[in-house]
Amino acid sequence: MNDISNFTAQDFLDGQLLLIDKPLNWTSFDAVKKLRYLIRKKFNLKKLKVGHAGTLDPLATGLLIICTGKFTKRISDLTVQNKVYEGTVTIGATTPSFDLETAIENETSFAHITPSDIEAAVHKLTGELDQVPPAFSAKWVDGKRAYIAAREGREIELKSNKVEVEKFDYHVESLPEIHFNITCSKGTYIRSIARDLGAELGTGAYLTALRRTAIGDYCVKNALTVAEFERQILPE
């Protein structure tokens, strides 16, 4: 999908699957809300169903599949597809959110870490895993999103989920950064993989960059940025 300029109101109502490259610091709902606003404004629509297939954290960029109209019924089928991510983990410290949303703490030395240590840790985090989601996540706990309680400083307990890391490629140019490319199942938290990698190495770790490059057969290289979508649907 790289040209929506000729779409009609009926096209969006009948259903479109839109590939969007989510900007940094936007929530997935921010992107949904923006596209809904632009489409409704263009065609003077009072109502239009719009939803996304798979949340991306605000500090992540990359592929977001947004469905309109009757295609919102396909969201559940899209969310179960495997995801592909690339990014960076930094070892030698932790953060409460497992990424850069919260302050760095527990800094420790990583000078003793060897290539074989990293290889062994990555091996343990490949395959089927029992993964505990981050407290700073959209999981529901006692009727509230977990991140609400976490941001209020309250202790919460999240149950582990069965996930699968099908592929975990990595390369190290210089520590403390470890660059990765991961293919994983629905429900896998890359921030939790960063935390668990730090635990395996005994150094702590947190996620410092994340980009989703694919969902099933859909790739970010075929996606529009929000700005490109806006220019096509509301040309000056």
Q: Would you write up a description of this structure?
A:
The chain has 236 residues and is α+β, with helices and mostly antiparallel strands. Helices cover 27% and strands 30% of the residues. It has two domains: 88 residues, Pseudouridine synthase; 133 residues, Pseudouridine synthase (2-Layer Sandwich), CATH 3.30.2350. The strands form two sheets. Strands 1, 2, 3, 4, 5, 8, 9, 10, 11 and 12 form a ten-stranded mixed beta sheet that branches. A two-stranded antiparallel sheet has the order 6-7.
Short overview:
It is built from 7 helices and 12 strands. The chain is of the alpha+beta class.
List keywords for this structure.
single chain; 236 residues; alpha+beta; Pseudouridine synthase; 2 domains; ten-stranded mixed sheet; 7 helices; elongated
